[in-house]
Write a structure and sequence with these properties.
alpha/beta; Metallo-beta-lactamase, Chain A; six-stranded mixed sheet; RibonucZ/Hydroxyglut_hydro; Flavodoxin/nitric oxide synthase; FMN binding
């Protein structure tokens, strides 16, 4: 008798977010198939469980790598190098497209260097590991959760965890098209059954670097000058496109990345402080650069200063991301901008809508 069991564990602080000073919870999932042999997919939610095989689905985060001398681990070539750092363990190295049998159960592996997804041929179930995961969703199935909330969390997870791997994900998605997937079982969050087509569409959309008619304004302000510029830009843009505004002294960088993922416009504002841009703005730009977002965006720097402007630093940092950088001296204001200047800034924003990345 073949059986499938799901083990769940609530994690109140995701380590990746905790390192950024952000509190984020998630639901961790492990899946156990019992046949002639027993196999566990991702040991993240099990404790001291014995099995014939354990599939380590994620080789980049230690919470997914729980090792015991009593088990045999299914790993990628890169995963083999990872677990060898922890000592001598029994493992089986698999490659892309390899098949594996544990009795009546036949599995096919689709993997990158860092992640393993497994397809259960008889049941048309994709055990997807890190792919299609969501944080902050403590539920069982997508049929019982709010669709908008699910997609926001799916998007945030992709933008902050999987974005650097988008080329590998495109290859996986191309092969998944040929499978009759009835259910997706990820390592975090709900299992997908009702919205599988939506999930695949969005993953491909994000991985291709496509954009929607949306603008994201990110800034920090000390004496309202930069804030006034941000408001004028918003007023000029929102007549035609959706605008999301993030103040970096309140918003989380992970939420900014979520909104930026498929936005066409990125507008970044900073006051000059100690002859440089604000450190929170600098941190955000560095964080974004490491995630390697699509260059298919229009970037606009803006800001304010008292004596000497550091706007050139903002322009340089945005240019390093290979965005199409559009700027004008009107966007960099000495002290508080007057009404006349703010009107000109608003008109600049309207003209921005005619441009393509």
């Amino acid at each position: 008798m073949v059986s499938l069991e799901r083990k769940k564990e609530i994690c109140w602080e995701v380590n990746r977010y905790k390192a950024l000073g952000i509190t984020k919870s998630c639901l961790n999932n492990s899946y156990i198939i019992k046949d002639k042999e027993k196999i566990i997919f991702d040991p993240i939610a099990v404790k001291d469980e014995k099995a014939d095989y354990i599939v380590i689905t994620n080789f980049l985060e230690l919470e997914h790598i729980k090792l015991s001398k009593e088990n045999k681990y299914i790993v990628t070539k890169f995963g083999k190098e990872v677990i060898e750092n922890f000592g001598e363990y029994d493992y089986l190295v698999i490659g892309y497209g390899d098949e594996f049998n544990i009795g009546e159960t036949n599995l096919k592996f689709y993997c990158t260097d860092f992640y393993i997804t497994s397809y259960w041929l008889e049941k048309d179930i994709l055990l997807s590991g890190e792919l299609f995961s969501q944080y902050e969703v403590i539920g069982s199935s997508d049929t019982k959760e709010d669709f908008r909330k699910l997609m926001e969390e799916l998007k945030e997870h992709y933008a902050n965890i999987l974005l650097p791997h988008r080329e590998d994900i495109l290859k996986l998605l191309e092969d998944f098209k040929n499978l009759e997937i009835k259910k997706i079982l990820p390592s975090h969050g709900v299992c997908w059954e009702k919205y599988i087509e939506n999930v695949f569409f969005e993953y491909k959309f994000w991985s291709l670097g496509n954009y929607r008619e949306r603008a994201v304004i990110v800034f920090i302000s000390l004496y309202q000058a930069t804030e006034l510029i941000a408001k004028a830009l918003k007023e000029g843009l929102e007549e035609e496109v959706e605008v999301r505004v993030h103040r970096l002294n309140f918003s989380k960088v992970t939420e900014v990345m979520r909104d930026l993922l498929d936005a066409k416009y990125l507008l970044v504002g900073s006051p000059t402080i100690n002859n440089d841009i604000h450190p929170k703005v600098k941190f955000f730009l560095d964080y974004m650069k490491k995630l390697n977002p699509s260059s298919n965006k229009i970037a606009v720097p803006f800001g304010s200063y008292g004596f000497e402007s550091a706007h050139y630093r903002l322009i340089d940092l945005l240019s390093e991301l290979e965005f199409k950088v559009v700027y004008d001296d009107i966007l960099f204001t000495k002290f508080i901008p007057d009404k006349s200047r703010l009107e000109k800034i608003k008109e600049f924003a309207k003209k921005l809508l005619t441009l393509d990345p």
